[in-house]
Amino acid sequence: MRMSINRQNTHIIPTRFEYHAPTSLDEAIELLTEYGGDARLLAGGTDLLVKMKQRVVEPRHLINLKMITGLTGIEEKADGIHIGAATKLRAIERSPLIREKLPLLHEAVRAIGSVQIRNMATLGGNLCNASPAADSAIALIALDARVQVKGAEGDRVIPLDGFFVGPGKTVLSPSEVLVEIVVPPQGRSSGACFIKIGRTSLDLAMVSIAAAVTLGDEAVEDCRIALGAVAPTPIRVREVEAFLRGKRLTDEVLEEVAAMVSAAIRPITDVRATAEYRRTAAEMLTKDALTRAAEEARRRRG
Ligand SMILES: Cc1cc2nc3c(=O)[nH]c(=O)nc-3n(C[C@H](O)[C@H](O)[C@H](O)COP(=O)(O)OP(=O)(O)OC[C@H]3O[C@@H](n4cnc5c(N)ncnc54)[C@H](O)[C@@H]3O)c2cc1C
Asked: Residues with Cβ < 8 Å from 157, sequence gap 6 or more?
């Protein structure tokens, strides 16, 4: 079968575009407002440039975020850990603060692509690309993260589990920029677990899960569970979380939880896995992730 070279991921970007390198957020928002749907923000380019090479998207204006100061960095404040949207995944992976305070995010970021990809890719790009399989997204949902957004209409804060609308779609308007991600402090008796099944270590997830569990004496006091690649967006299974509150993680409870997760997800068959595989794997991963998160919570509590 013959395919046009431009349908493949070549080194060539086949379309013409104008390149902009604003030095302030306000300037970037002005450009977005002026060019609307014809413009795309460029962060690390590891998703966007691939899509442009394949002509999946053909923006007439590229607005690079790299020259804007204040969009990168990791800082602990009273309300949690703030991560600039343009912070490279590799910087997050190597951050002692993230490793110590948010090991779940550390694990999830480490699972993304290769070192070369993580050296280019940003956290904001991983979220705004809105892949149902985005690894950082499920970890951040399980950590109850919120995102700070700035646009022509002003600033707003959005809980991350309300950020994704569909594959490749978020609640951001065309003039809005994701500025930072804020993860609230996690309790001392909280434990978390990230598990991803991929065809290779470089590939997107076939199924993934992030679970954060806070234990009371032995029963679950609180928990958040998010799954990737089993629905049109990364999903949080709130009904399962509600069911678990006040319960011990016995074998019977875990079986019930697996059945509830199976009912909540909407997996599809694609090049990576069948829907049946995804469903079975999601059930297994849920049991494993909750068990391991609870073990971690006990260990941290001492
Ligand atoms: C070989 C390979 C392997 C990969 N493996 C994985 C993997 O295992 N797991 C995984 O989750 N992903 C993976 N990816 C996808 C990709 O690397 C990540 O999603 C990455 O984090 C995207 O970040 P970026 O900075 O490169 O985004 P870009 O490509 O620059 O941008 C992505 C999208 O987000 C928008 N955007 C970027 N920043 C902002 C912002 N601040 N505000 C508003 N919109 C913004 C852009 O306009 C664009 O639409 C892989 C990609 C490749 C090429």
From this structure: 146, 147, 148, 149, 182
Which residues are CB-contacts of 147 (< 8 A; sequence separation ≥ 6)? 85, 127, 157, 158, 160, 163, 178, 179, 180, 181, 182
Q: Provide the 10 A C-beta neighbour count for residue 182.
A: 18
How is the chain split into domains, by residue range?
16-60, 74-183, 190-301
Where do we find the tokens 């402090």?
Answer: 185
Ligand 1 pocket member 113 (CB < 6 A): yes
Distances from the Cα of 255 to the Cαs of 147, 213, 275, 286, in angstroms? 34, 17, 20, 10
Residue recorded with tokens 């070369």: 116
Is the C-beta atom of 40 inside 6 A of ligand 1?
yes
User: Per CATH, is 74-183 categorized as 3.30.420.40?
Assistant: no
Pocket mutation for ligand 1, best pick of 46, 58, 61, 195 (most atoms within 8 Å of C-beta): 46
Pair 142, 235: CB distance under 8 Å: no
The domain made up of 16-60 is a member of CATH 3.30.43: yes
Is residue 226 within 8 A of residue 265, CB to CB? The reply is: no
* Fold of the domain built from segment(s) 190-301: Enolase-like; domain 1 (3.30.390)
pLDDT tens-digit series, residues 108-139: 999 999 999 999 999 999 999 999 999 999 99
Residue nearest to atom 41 of ligand 1 (CA): 178
Ligand 1 pocket, 229 CB below 6 A?
A: no
For residues 229-240, average pLDDT: 98
